[in-house]
Amino acid sequence: MTVRELYAYLEAQIPRDLSCEWDNDGLMCCADDTKEVHRVLVALDITAAVAERAVKEEYDLIVSHHPLIFRPLAAVSIGETVANKVIKLLVSGVSAMSFHTRLDAVTGGVNDVLAEALGLCDPTPFGPDGEAIGRIGTLSTPMTLRAFAARVKEVTGAEYVQISDAGIPVQRVALLGGGGSGEVKAAAAAGADTYLTGELKHDQLTEAPERGMNLIMGGHFYTENPVCERLRDLLLQADASLTVDIINSNPVAFV
Predict the structure, then answer these.
(1) Model-level pTM?
(2) CB atoms < 10 A from the CB of 228, how many?
(3) 181 burial type by CB count under 10 A (0-12 exposed, 13-18 middle, 19+ buried)
């Protein structure tokens, strides 16, 4: 398949109309959309290391969750981090496409993958009107917060997670992979006894016991990275002859 054909297939599976209004994603970088795609590299983020591997190992395409270009570029010249990657990829003939909040919202996307891995039954969307990209579901058997947090670590591969214990069992769980600090109230309004997301504010964590809802901060990268397997599956559904590899794009370490 060509870059153009592959993007059209993925866009049909992950429709743009599911994106939040403020978002920017899509076919981010492409010198020739008629180029045949044989090798694809999947990553949560297109870091400099991801771009370097794609060029060095002669991949035709990178597919990511987080957009390569999120804010408008003031200039495309060597010296700015995003522009550096765009130039490297264009010169080397490597295309890049990203699927951001629409991949969060779509059935089978970021949040459904996480909900399924954690064993939530009948997950349904929750969140503000027009941006109901999170999921809320029920555990078949209640768990302690520490036991559920251990499951989160196992499923996501996180080295640690932070918890704020409201002193209640975990059963009705809301989750939003990535930066979900803005949806704490929406999770509570949806009836969650526990809310899992990648990033939370200090005051939200400290006030959780007073508000009566358990909170788990699992890390932005770790709560979203499982979707890379889903992207790989979609690519192979589009063309089973593709070589599709996943790279861990997280440059952050704990010391």
Answers:
(1) 0.94
(2) 22
(3) middle
The CATH number of 107-223 is which of 1.10.287.130, 3.40.50.1820, 3.40.1390.30, 1.20.1250.20? Answer: 3.40.1390.30
Give Cβ neighbours of residue 134 (< 8 Å, ≥ 6 apart).
111, 125, 126, 127, 174, 175, 176, 180, 183, 186, 187
**Does this chain's domain 3-103 share its CATH topology with 107-223?**
yes
What span, in angstroms and rounded, lies between the C-alpha atoms of 145 and 169? 6
What would be the CATH architecture of the domain defined by 3-103?
Answer: 3-Layer(aba) Sandwich (3.40)
**pLDDT digit string, tens, across residues 138-157:** 999 999 999 999 999 999 99
DSSP string across 95-142: EEEE--HHHHHSTTSHHHHHHHHTT-EEEEEESSTT---EEEEEEEEE
Check if the beta carbon of residue 224 is closer than 8 Å to that of residue 177: yes
Q: Are 224 and 98 in contact (CB under 8 A)?
A: no
Per domain, the residue ranges of the chain are 3-103, 107-223
Q: What would the pLDDT profile of 173-225 be if each residue is shown by its tens digit?
A: 999 999 999 999 999 999 999 999 999 999 999 999 999 999 999 999 999 99
153 vs 222: CA distance, rounded Å: 9
The DSSP bridge pattern shows strands 243-246 and 39-43 to be parallel
Q: Is 178 helix (H, G, I), strand (E, B) or coil?
A: strand
